[in-house]
Amino acid sequence: MKLTLSGIAAVVATATAVAAQPSGNSTEAVHQYAKRQVTTNGWDLNGKSYDYVIIGGGTAGLALAGRLSEDSSKSVAVIEAGATGYDDQQKFLVPDADLYDSSINTQYDWQFKTTRQNYMNGRRASWPRGKVLGGSSAINGLYYVRHSKREQNVWNDLIGGGWDWDSFLSAMKKSEHFSPPLRSVARAASIEYESGSHGHNGPIHTTWPAVTYDPVGAFIRSSEAVAAPLNNDPYNGRNWGTYVAAATMKKSDWTRSYSRTGYIDPVASRSNLHVLTGHTVTKINFDRSDRNNVKATSVEFAASSGEATHTVHANREVIVSGGAINSPQILQLSGIGPSNLLNSLGIDVVVNLPGVGENLQDHLSAGMSFHPKKSSYVPEQRVTGDAKTDSYVNTAVSYVHMDKLFKNPDAIISRIQNSVNDIVNNANVPASVKRGQRKSYEAIANRIFNSNVAPIEILGNVMFGAINIQAALQHPLSRGSVKIHTTNAFAKPHIDPGYLSQDIDLTILRQGFKLIRKIVDQSPLKDLIDYEQTPGNDVQSNEQWENWIRQNAGTEYHPTGTCSMLPRNEGGVVDQNLKVYGTSNLRVVDASVPPISFSAHLMSITYGIAEIAAELIARDN
């Protein structure tokens, strides 16, 4: 069958020129061209066959689509539940729109909420996730932070090899197009870097904003003095310390660089790549003639629960790239997951995989705010229309070691190590999941907490008229799950991260906020602050801090683990090749795959997973 989308404009004669990486004033032209190559009509894919069908046009999904479609002999279809974003460019292209024209709580956000959290005063936490081409890379804070070599090698050992640091670093660098900061910004914000630790030919641009503000450099210097030393090369496996991280933006025009603009817009002329938006996948169908190795044959999707269901066929593979929430949901709806859950909903069990949706981990965070002595210390609270001014985003961080949080860190580490048995034995999860969690807890306790890897991230921000400093837990011992509660694919699953269900998480996070007070009491940051606004001087004792955290903490937007890469008998969902156990041609490629939480923001890691997946899929096909 000839793969052409009905109603889609023919490729224009200038396609070759347009397909090059856009720069400067050509960016909008490329977006307008690419817009014509995306369809919202489900009938355009209905009944057609593609070599690869990708479920989810987010951070990983579009990166994978861009790479797989480089082979002109292979056809690729992407099905995205959200909109294209082409008609609302400011929200996605202007960096500071992430704050002042935010996509959160709009049509571009899934607007998930957790279940009521027993250890957070019964609150339901908001969990924004991108529902638009580009996924969360289109709406996030643009932080480009890599994790550590030690963490990656823990993951590698948990799965038995194939995912070592050197290989993963190469994949992350392959996705990156690095540009150094402006000299004036580097001086003011104490930015240092090693060009060799970055990629220079990838589709995702990284650099630093065109402007900075006095509290940024002051935060760096005060943090360096009391929290963690300055790190001049945080991208080569040693990510701890204090630094201003790069941001995913394009230096030539100061626009956000994300998976749509990097991997899809420049190659919109490819006739073998078709993207459908506004449609939710409802089910994956299988050939079950080999019960031990089922084959994904087609994908069902619809615009809404009341509209027609369409089917697209997969000649080679189906790849699930829905993220840590949607990927386990799709698998469960399709009959892959814990048999007891599926049976309770009347879903035919295709593959009994108890780990699907389990092992959910998230960075728990909250922020303190301080009133600046001068209004000029912080940005205007709006999108100004000036590209350089609007390029400013917050990326100052300090990844802090245990010895800066506790007077006796060895006692805390011993407490963690000694708690593993109780945590695992008391976990209400299947036996195989317990086995995997035991190994991951032991690795975290013995190889991460007693290393230089940071249990806490401190984030220095200037926004909304204030100096805001956050603390975020990086290696939570609390675990949770994502589970469907209906066969309706348009109903949101139950999301239970189990926040603070392990009290050591509360202890560590509490110390992070105490450290923030030491940072702001250190010059030069101290000299820029008038007074503490939140939580204020009424919060002093351990008990007061813990009560404040329970009432105010929420997500740092980094959920992971729900389709963990672990051995099958340890609750794993995918193997070293990202293939779902019990299937021959179904993979998961997104941030649900890492079995442990990292001291990093997940975007760089997700691009790395997608780059490796593209190589694995090409090799197998």
Folded structure, characterized:
With 621 residues, the chain is of the alpha/beta class. It has a domain at 93-100 and 110-125 and 138-253 and 360-555: Glucose Oxidase, domain 3. Helices cover 29% and strands 19% of the residues. The protein is built from 17 helices and 27 strands. The strands form eight sheets. Strands 1, 2, 3, 13, 14, 15, 16 and 27 form an eight-stranded mixed beta sheet that branches. Strands 9, 19, 20, 21, 22, 25 and 26 form a seven-stranded antiparallel beta sheet that branches. It is globular, with a radius of gyration of 23 Å. The model is unreliable at 1-25 (pLDDT under 50). This is Glucose-methanol-choline oxidoreductase N-terminal domain-containing protein. Belongs to the GMC oxidoreductase family. Residues 323-337 form the Glucose-methanol-choline oxidoreductase N-terminal domain. Residues 1-20 form the signal peptide.
SSE order and pairing:
Blueprint: H1 15-18, H2 26-35, E1 38-39, E2 49-55, H3 59-68, E3 76-79, H4 89-93, H5 97-100, E4 112-113, E5 126-127, E6 143-144, H6 149-159, H7 165-175, E7 176-178, H8 183-189, E8 204-206, H9 214-226, E9 241-244, E10 246-247, E11 249-250, E12 255-256, H10 259-264, E13 273-276, E14 280-287, E15 295-302, E16 310-320, H11 323-333, E17 336-337, H12 339-344, E18 351-352, E19 364-372, E20 396-400, H13 409-426, H14 431-448, E21 456-463, E22 466-473, E23 481-483, E24 494-496, H15 503-520, E25 529-534, H16 542-552, E26 554-555, E27 586-588, H17 603-620
Parallel strand pairs: 1-13, 2-3, 2-16, 3-13, 7-8, 16-27, 17-18
Antiparallel strand pairs: 4-5, 6-10, 9-20, 11-12, 14-15, 15-16, 19-22, 19-25, 19-26, 20-21, 21-22, 23-24
Helix pairs in contact: 3-17, 6-14, 7-17, 9-15, 13-14, 15-16
GO molecular function: flavin adenine dinucleotide binding; oxidoreductase activity, acting on CH-OH group of donors
Binding site for FAD: 132, 281
Cofactor: FAD
